[in-house]
Amino acid sequence: MDNEFLDTRVLVIGDVMLDSYVYGDTNRISGEAPVLIVDVKKRHWSPGGAANVAVNIASLGAKCTLIGKICYDENGQTLYDLLRESKIDFKPVRVIGYNTTTKTRIVSKHQQLLRFDEEDIEELSSYFSEEVFQDVEEEITNYDIIIISDYGKGFCSEILCKKVIELANKNGIKVLVDPKGVDWDKYNGAFLISPNVKELSQICNCVVDNNDDSNIVETGKLIYEDYVMEYLLITRSEKGATLINKEIEHHVPSIAQEVFDVSGAGDTMISVIALFLSKGYSIETAIDNAIKASGIVISKVGTVPIAYKELME
Fold first, then answer.
1. Euclidean distance between CA atoms 173 and 268, whole angstroms
2. Which residue(s) pair with 145 in the sheet?
3. Active-site residues: which are they?
């Protein structure tokens, strides 16, 4: 089958990280403390965060440039090598004296038992923000669409987000944002902002009931009116997603038959939406296909990208 995304060029800016998985059996209790013993059988590493967005885009056949921070450490080199293997044009901002963000998950019988994180959260300095922006400015006409993947680790600074969105709008390029935290002013002007229910609860400082469509819509509309965007897309895990703007309340149910691991589902969603929008499809069609894609990845264990053939079938 012909892949219509082969000539699509996507820029991803955001917090890159390394996802590490340790798989093993749990059949014993430690004699030292009342804890499970994991007999390690396998280890696996994969790109996470904004890097997983980039891998999803590349896996679907499009060309992807990724800009994010890694450090001069072993995990940073592992992540760099993995991205190069995935044929991603990775332009790392290398920082001395910090840890590359790494999430290690201990898994047994398809269940996560424990996760431990290695990270140093610090906002990208104005010097590096300006350096990244200048790089984007020089290459802006090379991209069909831009994704800002903010995981709250500091790379998506206010100055960088605002300048990139303003530049993209001047050039008629849509910006999609996967947000984090409560500082959404820096995303003003984006084409689409896509929080999950937890992130929606944080930005409205209230409890949002994922099982109540009317509560989702009511809260979403309040947030939509507080910021400047074309669309607000609320991802709702096993409940699917809800799209909101001035005229639309569009609910899309999930197609997942069984949920093993939601890691990376949001990355897959925004990647697929970006690619379909870049080819001129409607926002509703883009989201419908993104829901199908995320339904596939959450039925697998680990951070796994979606392949073009999988999605088309």
1. 20
2. 10, 174
3. 267
CA-CA distance, 117 to 48, in Å (whole number)?
12
What is the second-level CATH architecture of the domain 9-17+48-95+121-307? 3-Layer(aba) Sandwich (3.40)
> In this predicted model, what pLDDT tens digit does every residue of 104-128 receive, in sequence order?
999 998 888 999 999 888 899 999 9
Amino acid at 216: I
Spatial distance between the Cα atoms of 67 and 270, rounded to a whole number of angstroms: 17
DSSP letter for each residue of 231-256: EEEEE-GGG-EEEESSS-EEEE----
With 0-12 / 13-18 / 19 or more C-beta atoms within 10 angstroms meaning exposed / middle / buried, residue 28 is exposed
By percentage, how much of the chain surpasses pLDDT 90?
78
Rounded-to-integer distance, Cα 102 and Cα 197, Å: 24
Contact 195, 235 (CB under 8 A): yes
